[in-house]
Amino acid sequence: MNGIPMEQGLLLSAMLFVLGLIGVLVRRNLIMMLMSLEVVLNATGLAFVVAGSRWGDADGQIMFLLILTLAAAEVGVGLGLTLQVFRRFHTLDADSLNEMKG
Amino acid sequence: MDMIGLLGWIPLFPLLGFLILALAGERLSKSAIAWVGVGSVAVSALLAGLVGSEFLTGTLQPYHLALGTWIEIDELSIAFGFYLDALSVTMLFVVTGIGFLIHLYAAEFMASDPVLPPFAIPCRPRVPWELQRPLDRSETQRSSKNTELNANASAFDLGYARFFAYMNLFMAAMLVLVLSDNLLLLYLGWEGVGLGSYLLIGFWYENPHNGYAARKAFVMTRVGDTALLIGLLLLFRQLHSFDIQLLMLRATAHWPAGTLMPVAAAALLLGGALGKSAQLPLQTWLPDAMAGPTPVSALIHAATMVTAGVYLIARTHDVFLLAPPVQFAVATLGAMTLLMAGCSALVQTDIKRILAYSTISQIGYMFLALGVGAWSEAMFHLLTHAVFKALLFLAAGAVILCCHHEHSIFKMGGLRKSMPLAFWSFMIGSAALSALPFTSGFYSKHEILSAVYQVSPNLWAMGCLGALITGIYSFRPVFVVFFGVQSHLVTKSPGWRMNLPLLLLIVLTLFGGLLRLPLDSVFPLVFKVDRQPNLVSLITGAAPFFGVSIAGLFYLSGAFSAQRLAAYRLLNPLRNLFFSGWGIDALYDALFVQPFKALAKFNKHDVIDDLYTMTALIGQWLHLTVSASQTGRIRWYASSMALGAALILAIGRQS
């Protein structure tokens, strides 16, 4: 169990997080943005698991289960909204969907 | 000491009458309105007669009636109390007696008055207020009379009830004013009569000019009222009481004569008196106040309210005795006013404006008497003046009514035969006004002038010149209106309700000089009136005769012509100056009205208001800025969230 040092695990988690965040900020397609968001969520989940294994605590894995549930729910709602957006506007370009401005 | 306890009821009946007429006036019939309106004053007059006769036959000790506490805060305690001495009995007789006769007269005078529904007359273009002459209401009314007479029967009766409601309100306030035992209650009455005056000058409100006249009267007297208010607060602050008798005692005890405090207090009280009594420099409202119905002019603007200033000074004479400079000012202002108003009265053409200027002039005599310390002489002249001026106004009202609301004396003429009672009333009233012997005015004015002579021959000379002018201006309308060629066919003659007051007032005018009220019990005795015939009393007595003769030469025999006199290049501007009341209206317009209007125009958008507008503008600007940041771009929001989170983490690292 102690094969992977915590620093490396957290570094991987941080890299995944940054990659996911860049994906959310850079991509304009809503589906790609949702996918990048999944990467961000999993990166945080990985950080919990790594920390949990470092301290020998089950809480990290419980948090990961919670995040998994959250991600599932988020994808459900997100994809549903995406479907509606596409039906109404015939596009998934996030930048052209800017009608709700002040 | 039984009847005298009824004193408290005297002001109550007019107040009740006011309440009944104001609340239920529109449901009452015309005769019921007259019964309530005149009856309430009649009851008051009856009570005043009972109370007054009991007082005068008694020991003349001042009677004090406390009805209860009005205001009580800490050391300040103001009683609702009445005070009866020879001075207030005099005023009580004047107010209730003449008030009753004028109410009776008005019951008939106002009965034929058509009250138009509001908005019936198209509004005229606005005219600056010094240019308006409330004279031309007659033509407005005449033209509308034919068309609107039968238009609105209910408005017809409503105006009648409104008139008597206002009159009763005025009577109640005036009685409170003269009976009050403290300055604050006096001030309540003082403002009450001002309100009554305002309401009644603007009684025919459908003509905007009358409204302007009412507002002018209200604002001008308010200038004086403010001085009075400051004065009575000063007295309270220094002497810790509002009770008049107590104040006078303390003032005499604590204040050395001629020091700052009594001078300031007396000057402020004088300010109030000048405004109410239409003396220089606040006299300009009275001629315009003639816009009201004639009984109003007789009651308020000749007999009672305008003499309230004289009453105030007489009531607080102890303070004035402590302030010789102010007393000198009273005498000087009185003398100047009587001359200036007399000159103005010489050239007026409106019969009511002649009488208005003569009122100002006669009150000038009273101020002159007060100024030299002839207190009881001033009050005596107040009494006789109230009687003969009411007589003159009521006679003028009868003439005006029978000439179909004609006011200009030069459009009347030869009414001697067709209106004998009005003629004799006017004749006797004018005789008393110009102080011809054997009338009441002769005794009172003669006493004033002989008292003035003992103090200052200069002021006496001004008074005598005034008496000469009085003779001219008071007989000018008599000769013009009642002699010569008859102008109007008099179709209707006044009924008994108008004739009876005239007859009674004629009797009082002729024999009023015999009335001797024991005013010496109130005032310190200063003068002994010498009845010895000497040069001074000869000149004093002869001056009016010269005046009457001059008027006769000009307007009766036609030996001289006023038109030819006015044609001289030098005299015509003088005539115009007199006609405009010495141009004081124009002066005030330039000094106060126009600067105020300019200021109002300059500040049309309210500088202070800009501050609040600025607050709103800042809020609006902030709102626009913040709402601009809401772009609707989801990636923008996401990146700002990420940036914000990074920032918070960075700050967390730092600390």
Chain-wise SSE layout:
The complex is a heterodimer of chains A (102) and B (655).
Chain A: H1 6-26, H2 30-55, H3 59-89
Helix pairs in contact in A: 1-2, 2-3
Chain B: H1 12-24, H2 30-57, E1 63-73, E2 76-84, H3 86-109, H4 137-148, H5 153-179, H6 183-201, H7 208-239, H8 244-254, H9 260-276, H10 285-288, H11 294-303, H12 308-315, H13 317-321, H14 324-347, H15 351-371, H16 375-402, H17 420-433, H18 440-455, H19 457-482, H20 496-511, H21 535-556, H22 562-567, H23 571-579, H24 584-602, H25 607-628, H26 634-654
Antiparallel strand pairs in B: 1-2
Helix pairs in contact in B: 1-2, 1-5, 2-3, 2-5, 3-5, 3-11, 3-16, 3-20, 5-6, 6-7, 6-11, 7-9, 9-12, 9-14, 11-16, 14-15, 14-19, 14-23, 15-16, 15-18, 15-19, 16-17, 16-18, 16-20, 17-19, 17-20, 18-19, 18-21, 19-21
What does this structure look like?
The complex is a heterodimer of chains A (102) and B (655). Chain A is mostly helical and 102 residues long. In chain A, 76% of the residues lie in helices and 0% in strands. Chain A has one domain: Orthogonal Bundle (Helix Hairpins), CATH 1.10.287.3510. Chain A is built from 3 helices and no strands. In chain A, α1 (6-26) packs antiparallel against α2 and α2 packs antiparallel against α3. The longest helix of chain A has 31 residues, at 59-89. The relative contact order of chain A is 0.13. The mean pLDDT of chain A is 90. Chain B is 69% helix and 3% strand. Chain B starts with 11 loop residues before the first helix and ends with a helix. Chain B contains 26 helices and 2 strands. In chain B, α5 runs antiparallel to α6 (183-201) and α18 (440-455) crosses α21. Classes of the chains: A mainly alpha (102), B mainly alpha (655). Chains A and B meet through α1 of A and α25 and α26 of B.
